[in-house]
Amino acid sequence: MLHAAASSTRLDLCCPARYRITVQGRLDADRAAWFSATQLETCGEHTVLTSAVADQAALHGVLALLRDLGLPLIEVRWLATHPADSALIPEGSQP
C-alpha cells in the first residue's frame, strides 16, 4: 500500500523527497548533464547535489551512479518530503 506524505516531517519509502548529497571530487560538464533534475554546486574539492527523487529506489540509483563515477560519498541529507516534489522530477530522469 502506498502512503502519501502529509507534511515535510515524514519520510516514506514510496514518496518523492528532496536530498542533498555531498561527494568528494568534481563532476565535469558532461557528467553533470546526467543529473538534469539536480542543482549542482562545487565547494572546493566537493560536489553538492540537491535534487528531488521519486522514491528511495531512485535515491539508491543516484547513489549507485555516483559510486560508478568513482566519487566517494561524504553525506546524504534528507531535506523534505512534500507531494509537490513529484512535479520537480522529469519523467525518465532517474538513473
Which structural traits does this protein have?
about 100 residues; 4-stranded antiparallel beta sheet; about 20% helix; disordered N terminus
- As laid out across the biggest beta sheet, the strand order is 2-3-1-4
Shape: globular
- The stretches of 5 or more residues where confidence is low (pLDDT under 50) are 1-7
Q: On the 0-100 scale, what is the average pLDDT? A: 79
Query: So what's the oligomer here?
Result: single chain
**Order of helix and strand elements from N to C terminus:** EHEEHE
- Amino-to-carboxy terminus distance: 24 Å
Q: Sheet with the most strands?
A: 4 strands, antiparallel
Q: Count every helix, treating DSSP H or I runs of 4 or more residues as helices.
A: 2
Rg from alpha-carbon coordinates: 13 Å
Count of β-strands: 4
Structural class: alpha+beta
Strand content: 25-35%
> Portion of residues in helices?
10-25%
Q: Brief overview, please?
A:
This protein is of the alpha+beta class and 95 residues long.
Describe the structure.
The longest helix is centred in the middle third of the chain and has 13 residues, at about 55-70. Strands 2-3-1-4 form a four-stranded antiparallel β-sheet, covered by helices on one side. The two termini are about 25 Å apart. The chain has a domain at about 25-90. The protein has about 100 residues and is of the alpha+beta class. Residues about 1-5 have low confidence and may be disordered. A hairpin with a 2-residue loop joins strand 2 (about 40-45) and strand 3 (about 45-55). It is about 20% helix and about 30% strand. The chain contains two helices and four strands, in the order E-H-E-E-H-E.
